Amino acid sequence: MSKVFDRTFELHSSSIVEELREFLTKDVFVGEEVKEFGKLTGGLTNLLYKAKVGDKTVLVRINGVGTETIIDRDKEIEYMLLLGEHRLSAEIYAIYNNGYVYEFIEGEALSPEEMPLHAELIAKKVAEFHDAPITPKTGDKSPTVFKTIKRWLNDVKSFEYKGEKKEKMAKIDLNRLYKETEDLEQLLKNCEVGFCHNDLLSLNILYNKENNQINFIDYEYCGYNYRSFDIGNHFSEHAGFDLKFDRFPDHNQQKKFVSAYLEGRHAKKPSDEEVEKLVAEVGVFSNIANIFWGVWALSQAYHSEIDFDYLDYGGKKINWFYERKDELDRNYRKHNQ
Hints:
alpha+beta; Phosphorylase Kinase, domain 1; Aminoglycoside 3'-phosphotransferase, Chain: A, domain 2; 2 domains; 11 strands; 46% helix; 15% strand
């Protein structure tokens, strides 16, 4: 049972390390000694620490400033607890106003270059995740991606960027992006929906070489969505934060991944036609991921205090969407007459 605390930790407090260490030993794991405590790097949203407390290794997270405007934190906790019932997420030990303490899962986070080396294992794990019997409290299992993009776009339209950010934002046609989103929503409205991770970039995929297993972490964006978005977004994330687009899986790599995924879900080898049809669908959703994270970055550029050029990242993601759009849409229509 997770402990719940009405407490908020300040990101920039000069005593944040001391406060968190004391919190762990006095409130969360009462009387246990904090043997190790250190900051982790790599993410673009939150502040994260790793600690050894007694015989447990845990992670302590403080949510990034303004992230509650793009992430439903209550739903994140709800889904983590539900996934934990099926051993698909880390155990939560304590919840506080702007973060939580949770189980450290053994394994090494992959790099974008390493993801293809473990593609079959990742595909099978995605299949397991998609078939998890997760039912939200609201009972709402409708897909979220298009609703989320449109909500973020409306938020971004209302932001008053200043200086260089204002100049960069002036070059991005938000109304056109909104129209593209609506058109794609109509095109893909009948695609299969399931419970998805929605953020399968390399840092959220752990490989444990001791047992040759893959685990997913970071459940901020989990929820019901188009299953092909989850796979397509994973493909898109091969580019990494440095946006090396030539790392995107080639057609044969996509087919192998999709074939392993379908076999994982249905316990039989799929036909070539089934694979090609899903590859075409995943392709369009991989491009929708560029709108999704492109608009996310525009929002982060307004709120976040992390030292990262979100506007440059978002602009490049959106440009990549337009570069790939026509070819991917044609291929989808070809396989979905």
